[in-house]
Amino acid sequence: VVVPANGHISIAQRCAPFLNEKQIVVLNPGRTCGALEFLNILRKEGNKKDVTIAEAQTFIYASRGMGPAAARIFRIKQAIPVAAIPSRKTEMVVKKLNVAFPEFIPAASVIETSFNNMGAVFHPSITILNLSRIESTMGNFQFYIEGVTQSVAKILEAVDKERVMVARKLKCANVYSAIEWLSMAYNVVEDNLFDAIHSNPGYVGIMAPRTINVRYITEDVPMSLVPISEFGKIFGLKTRVIDSLIDIANSIFKKDFRESGRNLSRLGLEGLDLSQIRNILIKGKK
Amino acid sequence: VVVPANGHISIAQRCAPFLNEKQIVVLNPGRTCGALEFLNILRKEGNKKDVTIAEAQTFIYASRGMGPAAARIFRIKQAIPVAAIPSRKTEMVVKKLNVAFPEFIPAASVIETSFNNMGAVFHPSITILNLSRIESTMGNFQFYIEGVTQSVAKILEAVDKERVMVARKLKCANVYSAIEWLSMAYNVVEDNLFDAIHSNPGYVGIMAPRTINVRYITEDVPMSLVPISEFGKIFGLKTRVIDSLIDIANSIFKKDFRESGRNLSRLGLEGLDLSQIRNILIKGKK
Lengths: 286, 286
Hints:
The structure is a homodimer.
Chain A: H1 8-15, E1 24-27, H2 34-44, E2 52-56, E3 61-67, E4 70-76, E5 80-85, H3 90-100, E6 104-106, H4 110-115, H5 119-128, H6 131-137, H7 150-169, H8 178-186, H9 193-198, H10 215-218, H11 220-234, H12 240-253, H13 257-260, H14 274-283
Parallel strand pairs in A: 1-2, 5-6
Antiparallel strand pairs in A: 2-5, 3-4
Helix pairs in contact in A: 1-2, 5-7, 5-11, 7-11, 11-12
């Protein structure tokens, strides 16, 4: 399933009557808690079969839509972690995927794929803090290289810290800071995010979106920031900067992304404690 | 007293030993709750005399510092509301001011001068939502005309709504929305803030600050947004967008503007109810 994460619900609803035990659904990518949400929708729609749902940590291609029914692949990413719910099925899923796509590798669980979702850190912050610039230039500047100034980088670091804090509390097996991730994914070794982003040749030439009505907000706020904030809430962790970005996005779009996004109720996690939540994410049941 | 509002505390501390019954201090301007904070500092420093403290709603000049010990006045504003604590002294203060400055007019109370502080609405929002642009162009764009795009205007409207909501709850005698204020101050009549700002010739040519370390944040976050948010808290009103801007500013400056700003404790309002608060602001005592 290759759609922005805010499309997962409708895909799940449409597939629910037809999916059976032998089938595997891979969300490529799932953003944060995509596999769990997909599974919840199947159950709500009355499908109680043991369908295998998996999610990739990021999309396998660095690519852009170039027009109706046309996309351009700039690069195939290496080593994309994938995990299934329950995680004992991950190896089987990856083996099947590897027949066509050798780039997929197994992750410890969907906690890892969901919380190492770097779009959550980069996309909404950079977009919101470049609001007027995107609108007045129609995105005519380099999103990462020009859009991330010293202060924007400070906000990215704050969002990243909140994400890592929540992931740690969930006992995420491998949680990478954005700086660590940049060094793994792009071989950039710097001691702060501003320098790391600015010395990454992979970011050169990536332009800003032409409008702020873009998946960097409409996908990454409800499907990435909202679940991180919601998990923070369960554990009594304050995610002030993430919450601020959600509130500002709500205000711009006159929507409630907390309501439409992956909140605790949609994820079926209300009232549960840490070990119950980990069991659901890792084993598929409380 | 003509200093950014974050300088009021230190001025009050230095003046405290010397001020007496016959003297009048006018904060020009006070931002939100300047007179109340000044009075609290005098009391804390042991000055129990009946000094008259007043605040102007905005600075009397449209002006900019042009260098060390040099300022340029572009325009003298007309009809600047002023109020004293207690408000029965306002008329006396305005009469004295009018000898030199006929532009000052009496306001109902400091509730009016504090909550019609439009800097709170315009300054931090536009600055934060133009963060990368200010830093990468060193402020080389028109702050209002280019910096306020459609989405930025939506955030301004949200902040303004929250300010008006808190002021109404405080039973502010005359509370103006930003749109009403623009029509009074600049004769601009439009039905939305975007159009009102863009059709205001008074905003043409006003450039953005050259850095984000500027009073639009360092003064207006702690001395305008923080007190509005704090009053909201007393009344159980949610000021989500204002709070978001405070949190983002905190994160950029690695400070706690709620702590250093005009919070309930600094204003001496902790644990009080609406009528006690109104009495303090209007009569100078509970």
